[in-house]
Design brief:
It is built from nine helices and no strands. It is mainly α.
């Protein structure tokens, strides 16, 4: 009962956050005087493009999260730790309909805020700056900062939005370093050295988690921004975002469930072996 109640609370909190992002994005669009729909238009081409753009990031991340890759790469291990922690803390225990609701809300809310509002407003600023400086002469025309970026205004706006996304994600999710660590007292030098090595390895993984989690979010944000530039229909990035999140999260939840199932089987086998040995004696 408490697990279901916790899932409902997390679901309500998540949907509230994404709804606030969508409303904030609409407000930004109204202030900037740009289209708040992002060219939204339901069509078969948007569906096909969304599916097509979803394939590369899904294949890349599933390869990184593979058990064999994680076994030999500490960087992949750090990314896997981040994904597993997010799944355990937020998504684990949700029913299928709750999972669908939160993924749909995240796809719509984040795309309306980051892509349509932030990226769209930045691109509009760059293009308007070009119009204001079109007739500049002399030093003004040589010292203008916006015109050199005019051919790449959309891409430059996507890059800034991606950096902002990664930075916000870092601020929101980066684990705080502990004030102190309690460890058992080691009298031997060997024990103290082994403890130092374990702590150093733990701290290194912790630092890599701080780096790779926002880095992945930034890369995905730039990819989705580039997709929006190419398709000119925000529905395509929404579909890509939703499919990517669904596949990656379902894969992670299945991995966690499979690991727990094998752990329970191993515990049961050990108990049966202990019962058999006691009966024999």
């Amino acid at each position: 009962m408490w697990e279901r109640l916790g899932a409902v609370v997390r679901l309500s909190y998540g949907i509230g956050i994404y709804a606030a992002m969508a409303l904030t994005g609409r407000f930004i669009c109204q202030m900037a005087g740009i289209d708040c729909t992002g060219g939204f238009h339901p069509s078969l081409s948007a569906l096909v493009e969304g599916l097509g753009y979803a394939a590369p990031p899904i294949m890349a991340l599933l390869f990184i999260l593979d058990d064999e890759v994680v076994k030999y790469s500490p960087h992949a291990r750090a990314i896997r730790d981040v994904e597993d922690e997010e799944l355990r803390s937020f998504f684990y225990g949700m029913s299928p309909w709750q999972f669908i609701l939160i993924v749909t809300a995240s796809s719509i809310g984040e795309e309306l805020f980051y892509r349509v509002a932030v990226q769209g407003a930045l691109a509009d600023i760059f293009l308007r700056g070009t119009e204001l400086m079109k007739d500049a002469r002399g030093i003004a025309s040589l010292s203008g900062m916006v015109p050199p970026f005019v051919p790449f205004a959309q891409t430059f706006a996507a890059a800034i939005t991606a950096a902002l996304t990664g930075s916000l994600y870092y601020v929101a999710t980066a684990p705080k370093d502990p004030t102190y660590v309690v460890t058992p007292a080691m009298r031997s030098n060997t024990g103290r050295e082994n403890l130092k090595k374990l702590f150093a390895a733990w701290y290194e993984r912790r630092q890599m988690r701080k780096i790779y989690s926002p880095l992945l979010e930034g890369i995905l944000a730039f990819y989705l921004g580039f997709e929006w530039i190419q398709t000119d229909n925000i529905l395509a990035p929404m579909i890509t975002h939703g499919i990517y999140s669904t596949v990656v999260l379902c894969h992670g939840l299945w991995k966690i469930h499979d690991h727990r199932r094998r752990l329970r089987q191993r515990i049961q086998e050990i108990r049966q072996e202990g019962t058999t040995n006691s009966d024999t004696l």
